[in-house]
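Long-time lurker, first post. I've been practising inverse folding by hand and with some scripts of my own, and I keep getting stuck on stretches where the structure tokens seem ambiguous. Below is the full token string for one chain I'm working on. Before anyone asks, I'm not after the true native sequence, just a reasonable design that respects the backbone. If someone could post their per-position residues I'd love to compare against what I wrote down in my notebook.
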């Protein structure tokens, strides 16, 4: 009666005959009430971070409000981790929380709605809740330019990572729009790790006309940039401004504490679980579900690592 694909044609014909013989008519209020019952959602993740802990806590709060049971498992891909997530229990939908440093490809589970959190996903059939990395990088770069920085070094992530490329796009757009120095040598490529931040910062600070600010596209690389600056005898932020991306644990365990961009984690968790609930209830009520994709704004969290560039002899350094 609900049109589910798991029913064989023979059983479907018998049910249809019984419905006709009994003059059965569905009780729509009862069906809606049944559709509002408990929903079981699997959570797949492959990261260990402040984002994950805050996200799971927010999901737990949302699960109570939305009559949802959560099943949590670790995995690197949606398709290969589906069985592990369910742990032998059927799930109605799945939230995939990949590492922000992983490949941006996502995989569709047959007949199970999936929401990918943190990446827009390359498949329009898969739901997504993610931060607007381009707009966020534009905002941070513009902030640095307003402080007076004209030579801003940018440490990108790998070229095969969608979030990394979007952050680079936002940086370049702000530099062009605000008339700052857009020299190619001010952009260096890391891989989001602390180690790559060390090497890339050394390159930037080794330039004859070094940048007065470094914007790293991950907090790990920004923390490494601060470490290199200290090693060279530079004060952060008096001699060099450093900003990061993500508001991860290292942002507040570093000295000075890092100015960075923060994901609205609680809001992302709420959107993800509510989108899946709407999808599942639409299927249960015989309606065509909508694949939802939501882009979230990231806000700057100012701490102690950014300041106006120092003036010496009428020039900014």
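-- Answer (accepted) --
I ran through it position by position. Result:
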């Amino acid at each position: 009666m609900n049109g589910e694909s798991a029913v064989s044609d023979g059983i479907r014909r018998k049910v249809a005959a019984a419905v006709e013989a009994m003059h059965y008519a569905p009780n729509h209020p009862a069906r809606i009430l049944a559709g509002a019952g408990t929903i079981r959602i699997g959570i797949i993740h492959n990261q260990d971070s402040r984002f994950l802990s805050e996200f799971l806590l927010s999901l737990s709060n949302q699960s109570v409000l939305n009559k949802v049971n959560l099943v949590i498992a670790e995995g690197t891909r949606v398709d290969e981790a589906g069985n592990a997530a369910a742990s032998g229990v059927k799930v109605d939908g799945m939230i995939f929380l990949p590492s922000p440093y992983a490949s941006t490809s996502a995989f569709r589970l047959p007949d199970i709605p999936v929401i990918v959190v943190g990446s827009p996903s390359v498949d329009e059939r898969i739901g997504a809740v993610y931060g607007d990395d381009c707009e966020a990088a534009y905002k941070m770069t513009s902030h640095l330019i307003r402080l007076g920085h004209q030579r801003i070094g940018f440490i990108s992530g790998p070229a095969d990572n969608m979030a990394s490329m979007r952050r680079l796009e936002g940086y370049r757009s702000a530099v062009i729009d605000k008339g700052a120095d857009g020299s190619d040598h001010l952009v260096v490529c890391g891989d989001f790790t602390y180690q790559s931040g060390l090497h890339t910062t050394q390159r930037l600070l080794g330039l004859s006309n070094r940048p007065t600010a470094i914007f790293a596209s991950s907090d790990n690389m920004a923390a490494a940039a601060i470490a290199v600056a200290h090693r060279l005898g530079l004060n952060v932020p008096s001699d060099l401004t450093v900003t990061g991306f993500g508001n991860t644990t290292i942002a507040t365990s570093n000295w000075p504490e890092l100015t960075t961009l923060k994901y609205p984690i609680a809001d992302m968790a709420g959107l993800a679980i509510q989108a899946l609930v709407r999808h599942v209830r639409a299927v249960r009520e015989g309606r065509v579900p909508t694949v939802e994709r939501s882009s979230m704004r990231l806000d700057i969290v100012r701490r102690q690592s950014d300041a106006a560039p120092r003036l010496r002899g009428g020039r900014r350094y």
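A couple of notes from the structure itself: The longest strand covers residues 39-45. The two ends are 73 Å apart (CA to CA). Happy to go over any region you disagree with.
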